[in-house]
Design goal:
The chain has 180 residues and is mainly α. It is built from nine helices and no strands. Helix 5 crosses helix 6. The radius of gyration is 17 Å and the shape is globular.
C-alpha cells in the first residue's frame, strides 16, 4: 500500500498521466486550427479545442473498465486542474474561480453530449452544427466547421484503432490536421 501511494508505481502513473495530457494538449494546439480553420486564438478558443480533444480521448476510452477507466478519470481531473490553473493565470481571483469552473464544466459536459450524440448517430450535419455553435458562436456562418467535423470523425476512428494497452501505457496518437 505504501509503495502504491508514494513509491515507484505512483511516479509511473504520474508520468503516464503527464504524457497523455501533453499529447492531448499538443493535438489541441495544432496551428492549423487557428490559422486556417478560423478557430479563435483566444483563451476560450483554446478551451474549445482542448475540450474537443479531451472529449475525443474520453470517447475512445468510454466503456472500458479497469485501468482504462481509471486513466480516463485521472485525465479528466488533470484537464479541470489545468483549466483552473489557467483561470488563475488569467487573473481570476479565488472568489471567482469556483463560479467560473462550474460554468466551464457545464460547457464541457454540454459540448461532449452534443459531440457524442452526433458521432454515435453518424450525423455529420449535427456535428458541424454543434462545432459551429460552440467554437464560433459569434459567427453567422463558419465554413471551416465542416473541416473540423471531418477531423473529429477521422480522430475518432483513428483512436478506435489504437490498442487500449498502448493508450493506458502513455501513448496516444492524434492525426495531424491538414490545412485547407
Amino acid at each position: 500500500m505504501f509503495q502504491r501511494l508514494f513509491g515507484r508505481e505512483r511516479h509511473a502513473n504520474r508520468a503516464i498521466t503527464e504524457a497523455l495530457y501533453a499529447q492531448i494538449v499538443a493535438a489541441a494546439r495544432q496551428t492549423v486550427f487557428y490559422s486556417d480553420w478560423n478557430v479563435p486564438d483566444t483563451p476560450l478558443g483554446r478551451f474549445e479545442m482542448l475540450s474537443l480533444h479531451m472529449f475525443l480521448f474520453q470517447h475512445r476510452l468510454r466503456g472500458e473498465g479497469g485501468v482504462a477507466g481509471e486513466v480516463a478519470q485521472v485525465l479528466i481531473d488533470e484537464f479541470f486542474m489545468d483549466v483552473e490553473h489557467s483561470l488563475r493565470e488569467l487573473g481570476v481571483g479565488d472568489v471567482g474561480v469556483p463560479k467560473r469552473m462550474k460554468k466551464l464544466a457545464k460547457m464541457f459536459y454540454g459540448r461532449t453530449a452534443a459531440y457524442d450524440d452526433a458521432l454515435e448517430r453518424n450525423d455529420l450535419d449535427a456535428l458541424v452544427a454543434a462545432l459551429a455553435r460552440n467554437v464560433r458562436p459569434d459567427a453567422g456562418t463558419w465554413p471551416q466547421a465542416t473541416h473540423l467535423a471531418g477531423y473529429v470523425v477521422d480522430v475518432s476512428s483513428r483512436l478506435a484503432e489504437q490498442p487500449t494497452e498502448s493508450i493506458v501505457s502513455g501513448a496516444v496518437a492524434f492525426p495531424v490536421a491538414k490545412p485547407i
